[in-house]
Amino acid sequence: MPSSAGHHTLNRRVFLRNSLGVSAGLIAAPALANLWQASEAKAATAFAAFVDDYTTNTTANLTPETNAVVRALGGFAEIWKTGDAWNTGAPLLPEILRANVRYSERVTARRTDAQAREAFITDRQHQSYSVISGLGPLAELYRTGAMAVTAITSAPDGTPSGKISDSVPADAPTGSANGAGSTSSALGKVAELVNTVRGPFASSNPAKFSYQYPRPWRMNENSEVVDTGRTDEFGFPVYDSAVVVAPQLLRQRGEDAATDGGFPSGHTNALHLAALAYAYAVPERFQEMVTRAFEASHDRIVSGMHSALDVVGGRVMATALAAAALADPRNAELKAAARRQAAAYFQAKTGTTADTLFAYAHSAGTDTDPYADRAANERLVEPKLTYVLPRHGKSRDLTVPKGAEVLLETRLPYLDAAQRREVLRTTALPSGYVLLDGWEQWGRLNLFAAADGYGALDADVTVTLDASLGGFHAADTWRNDIDGPGGLVKKGGGTLTLAGANRYTGGTVVEAGVLAAGSKEAFGRGDVRVNGGTLVTGDHTVRVRGGYAQAGVLDVTLDRGADAALVVDGRAVLERGSKLVVRFDAEQAPRSGSTVAVIGARSLQGRFAEVSVAVDGWTAEQVFTAHGVAVRLRKK
Fold first, then answer.
1. Which ranges of the chain have pLDDT less than 70?
2. Alpha-carbon distance 237 to 85, whole Å?
3. Exposed, middle or buried by CB within 10 Å (0-12, 13-18, 19+), for 224?
4. How far apart are CA 446 and CA 424, in angstroms?
5. Region Disordered: what ranges (predicted)?
């Protein structure tokens, strides 16, 4: 199929001769490994950042000295020693490579017929089309607006008679296009952005030719390539391998083993590139697009065509390449136009606004949106970040690669570039995973987690949400469990919800807008002060581990329970002008005449200047207790 991440039949020895300046046939494996080690050492100090050098990823450049992608994947050279031919490489960390092949063996042995069929569709469908399903309720609207079509909608019962490629069906509307769709369509800028991110410098072939790591179905558990001397019914050599390729894909296997390397996976690279481009243009489905890319990439292992390490390598290079394309000044106008076009199109088609499109994009259940369950998405993604890689050593802090923050530019638009880098740093995987710890450590970035805001506040953070700008500027939720010694200051008229079990100790200050609790431990373990704006407890008891001071508004939802809406471990102070807004739990509303605790504290000073009930026909009178304040509720 047409793809910048497709395969080219090229002579491996010519590539090595051109890139190393000598005949590859005369270089023994140890000498070649020494060349790699020298190049890697130089790459650590002497080269431009990946985002400034990504255009070196061409088939004319096959060494870490000449190719930014090969450098970014340099951790693989610690696992695998490239030989002087496709079948003469050797394990450097045999326990990892053995686990890698065994994983493929297990997955393909347990594969169901339905999984084999799905793996065929993922293999043959254009990758830019395949990931559109991650848009959920917006997916069909996108396909229609972009005029995106595919010829691969089902899988054959057995092995097809020949090779199959995606194309534009004969009955498709005039102007339809494969992949992301037509660049002259109503969503043409989005399609163009996807194509650009998957542009001429995004191929996996240079790295494949460089590392020469065979496909799993050509290898045994000892990472040896043993040709049995037999051929199968399709004329392919039979290797000593227990990895079983899906029957629908037996004819799709590469015929020239010398140019058909496994690492990194080109399909995985393309799937993640396309998904991150869509996620930039439609950030309302950011996490779901990331999830879709991980899910589809796993199909490469299910199919038997790639190993777990191949897939990890494809994801790592795609993360770096997507950031490079989006950070490239030449693409600045295009990416902004794609974002504007997507927002305007989807709002018009769904009757929503910038503030309500997110809700529409998450309005379907799992019966029609396979990515509707965020917790299930997290369970799908988390183990696939590392697969078979063990972790060794103590954690080292991450220096976020230059330009990586652009990946969150539309998902966290209210943060500045430095803050987005902190989000990436504090949500990243720990160090110690070989391959992920390669040059610039792109493999440590966890974009799924980063979409949920900070993982730690290592210094005080001020966040300003401007509701007038709409979308995520108006309202957003941070779901990570945030720790660290820093504190949070909330400004601006928008609403920020903290939904994690937070442990940051620097305190919380509300200056304007709304700061809402999405969990009992939302506000960490420091003091909480409401200088202005509103603090919302929601429909559960919220704990303040330090002291509490209020000059703004406290908004609580009360039920029939005995616990206070806000439990303060220290002293609570209600300053002049402080207000209370009372709401009722819809399922356990308090009874008329009951007294319900609002604040429970070690001691309380002051009183609310105003108490109101956001339920028609009710009144509330504040009542002071030995350790706080309650309200006596009456129905008029």
1. 1-45
2. 17
3. middle
4. 7
5. 153-184
Cis preceding-peptide flag for 401 (omega within 30 of 0): no
- Can you read off the two tokens belonging to residue 176? 């339809």
- Give the pLDDT of residue 625: 85
Cβ–Cβ < 8 Å for 501, 483: no
- Looking up tokens 């806000």 gives 566
Measured distance CA(279)–CA(406) in Å, rounded: 12
**pLDDT at position 9, please?**
31
Here the tokens at position 519 are 């969990």
Q: Which amino acid is at 292?
A: R
Q: How far apart are CA 306 and CA 298, in angstroms?
A: 9
Residues 483 and 479: their CA atoms lie apart, in Å, by 12
Residue 415: its pLDDT value, please? Answer: 98
39's enclosing H/E stretch is: helix 29-46
Place of tokens 């076009």: 341
Whole-prediction pTM: 0.93
Give rounded-to-5 percent helix, strand, coil for the chain. Answer: 40, 15, 45
Contacts of 432 (CB under 8 A, 6+ apart): 391, 392, 393, 394, 395, 396
Burial of residue 82, with CB atoms counted within 10 A of its CB: 0-12 exposed, 13-18 middle, 19 or more buried:
buried
Angle among Cα 360, 482, 463 to the nearest 5 degrees reads 65
What pLDDT sits at residue 393?
A: 83
Which distant-in-sequence residues (6+ apart) come within 8 Å of 171 by Cβ? Answer: none
* Cα–Cα separations (whole angstroms), residue 451 to 163, 308, 412, 518, 568: 39, 24, 7, 16, 30
